Amino acid sequence: MNRFARTILKGLAVFIPSALTIWILWSAFLLLDRILPFHTPGIGVLVLLGIVFVLGLLADSWLAGPLFRRFERLMERLPVVRLLYRSLREMTEALLGERRPFQHPVLVRPWTGSEARLLGFVTRTNLSEIGKPGWVSVYVPNAYAVAGQTFILPSDLVEPLDVESSQAMTFAMSAGVTGAKVER
């Protein structure tokens, strides 16, 4: 490949993620601004942050807490809504809440005796409730996707990793291109 083509590819590698990030953020700002009845550029983001902050305060208060719990019980009773609401709530709590299931990066041996390893995160260390004491559940994210697989396997097939979970997640999500430092 000649120098011109390499330079173009490097330029695209910088331009595409930057342009897409800016476009997504700009689209979100415009959407928030259109929702409001008055038109002041950027005010939609400030209003959204204010609403989220007030909801956070109310969720912790003794007065509004019971109202939020009542709302959650209602959402849990509606057949189709229940599945969507519960999935979104649990994923949001996992990523932002007190309970952080993706804090324990591990290597998983997919088959006994295999030298291959999968990069994943222990999500449960005790599976006695499903009749598998001594087994663990490990989430293995797919590269370049917001998806993955959950493996249920004996704990002796799991090796803890001594790396920050954010580095391990970046490494897994980028197919090993970025994230945890690897010796060459």
Shape: flat
Gyration radius (Cα, Å) is: 22 Å
Low-confidence stretches: none
The overall pLDDT average reads 78
Number of helices: 5
User: How many structurally independent domains?
Assistant: 2
Largest sheet data: 5 strands, antiparallel
- Structural class of the secondary structure composition? alpha+beta
Give me the strand/helix succession.
HHHHEEEEEH
Q: Give the end-to-end Cα distance, rounded to a whole number of Å.
A: 25 Å
Strand content: 15-25%
If strands are numbered along the chain, what order do they take across the biggest sheet? 4-3-2-1-5
What's the number of extended β-strand segments?
A: 5
Helix content estimate:
40-55%
Question: Can you describe this structure in just a few lines?
Answer:
By secondary structure, the chain is of the alpha+beta class. It folds into two domains: 3-96, no CATH class; 105-173.
Descriptive overview:
The protein folds into two domains: 3-96, no CATH class; 105-173. By secondary structure, the protein is of the alpha+beta class. The mean pLDDT is 78. Helices cover 49% and strands 15% of the residues. It has a five-stranded antiparallel beta sheet, covered by helices on one side.
Write the layout of secondary structure elements.
Layout: H1 3-35, H2 43-60, H3 65-77, H4 79-96, E1 105-108, E2 118-124, E3 135-141, E4 148-154, E5 158-160, H5 165-173
Antiparallel strand pairs: 1-2, 1-5, 2-3, 3-4
Helix pairs in contact: 1-2
